[in-house]
Structures are given as C-alpha cells and as structure tokens.
Amino acid sequence: MLQSRVAACAAVLLATAARSRSCDTPHTYRTCATCSACAALASNGELGPDEIDRYKSDYIDPIAAILGNAKYAGLRIVTTIEIDSLPNLVTNTGSRATATPACDTMKSNGNYVKGVGYALNKLGDVPNVYNYIDAGHHGWIGWDDNFGASADTFKQAATAEGATVDDVAGFITNTANYSALKENNFTIDDSVNGVSVRQSTWVDWNRYTDELSFAQGFRNKLVSVGFDSGIGMLIDTSRNGWGGTARPTGPGATTSVDTYVNGGRYDRRIHVTPPPRERGGFSLCRCGFATDQPGP
C-alpha cells in the first residue's frame, strides 16, 4: 500500500509540474507528504506513531529519489509538506481541552517534528523542488495562544534532522479547507455599538477574519522567528466559494455585533470546522502516522 502511494504521489507531482510549464503561473502544487493528523481521521495516515524510520526509508527516500532523477531537472516541483500535523502539537496536547492521547504521543516522541525535518532536508536537496509547509488556517491557529507557538514549532521542525530554513520556500494555508480568502463586508478592526468584531460569536476573539490577512500576518511572524524574509505564502482557495445565491453583498445589520458579522460573512458555515470525510484531491497521499481519533 505504501509503495503504491509513493508512486502515485510522485506521479502527480511530476504531472502537475509538467503542466505548469505551459501556464502563466510558474508554481502549481500538490501535496505528497504524509497527510497525518493525530486529532482527526479526515487526514489520518497508515503508519504507527513510532514508525519514523519506515516513514523515512519507505516514503520520503523513494519520493526524493524519483524527484531527483535528472530527466525531471527542467521541472519546478512544489511539495506541500504534512497536512494537519504540526499545529496539532500546539492545539491538541497537554492541558488543552482539545488534547488527544495520540497528539500527546506525537509531541512526546518528537516524530512529527523529525518527520517534517527529514522530508524538508531530503526533498530540499533536489535543486528544482520547492517545499511549502502546511500552516493550518486562520480558524485554527489565528488565536493568540496558537499563533506564536505554531511559528516556533514550525521553526523547530525546519531545523530538525539536518534541515535548515533554507529548505523552506514558504508555507500554505487553508489546504483543503473552507475559510474565505477575504471577507469584504467586515474587518477585524470594526465595532458595532462599541463592541469589537473580535467579540462576535463567529470570530470569537480570533485576530483574523479571513485567510489573506492571516497569511500576511503569519508570514511576518515566521520571518521574526528566523525564516527567510523571502518566503512565499500559498492559500488554497479550492473550497471557499461560499454563499452561492445567498452570498451577502454588504455588511449585516448593526443591531448587534453578531448580526453585523453573520449577515455579512461570505463563509456561511454554521460551524467553524465542518466534517469532510475526504480531502479532495489530496486523498492519494494519506500515508502518515495513524491514530484512532474521529474526524473533526
């Protein structure tokens, strides 16, 4: 099973990179890292929490070997590293109400950090490969107690197992998720009757209302902890076309801060994290550390 997924992931990366040569946009991307989440089955993997050696030898090494073949040297290959892994070490461990035993295990044994570091190091050795680390989304790490800690965790991973920050071309947010690129009908600085938008039920004290502002703010934080000032930020917009015929055309009523936000937001979900059981085109690459946790 793992062998077939390695081949499938490498094939998709190469095909996508080849197609991008005829496009105006030089970088297209596809995730082919382990897609492992210790807090949800939606992006879970098949390796056990202690199978870091197998992850290296049976997964990353073969992909690096394929991508490093001289016949692909003319392609610009963008990898998206480890969907739904590193932020869990911040938000779903320790004394947090959202903590899970599986995430505590991965934080204790260090294998998420080691795995990401190893992948960055090996794939980064291929001159035409550009690594982008998954950075969650604003509705996950946009709060103060998650924001800085996540940046620090990413830096730890990017300097583990022989990797350096030079192996990181950038970060991607909102991968296979639903957050709006830009909420045009309200901003985080708005207030209604003296009540900040941050106090609305929807925003719930988050510092960000959409992925664009989050990606810009998080980029600044990442640079401040030691990442290169030239890092890029990608935002997955494939699932955020919310609203349809009900898409708001302006702010909500100013009766309260909640009517203002709820009436104007493009993201029409009831819950911040809906429960997709599959991750769209990324399902080819579900090859990471397995857990027994339910979906979100």
Offer a concise description of the structure.
Helix content is 35%, strand content 8%. The chain contains nine helices and seven strands, in the order αβαβαααβααβββαβα.
Structure description:
By secondary structure, the chain is of the alpha/beta class. It has one domain (2-183, 208-245, 275-285): 1, 4-beta cellobiohydrolase (TIM Barrel), CATH 3.20.20. It has nine helices and seven strands, in the order αβαβαααβααβββαβα. The strands form two sheets. Strands 1-2-3-4-7 form a five-stranded parallel β-sheet, with helices on one face. It has a two-stranded antiparallel ribbon with strand order 5-6. Strand 5 and strand 6 form a beta hairpin.
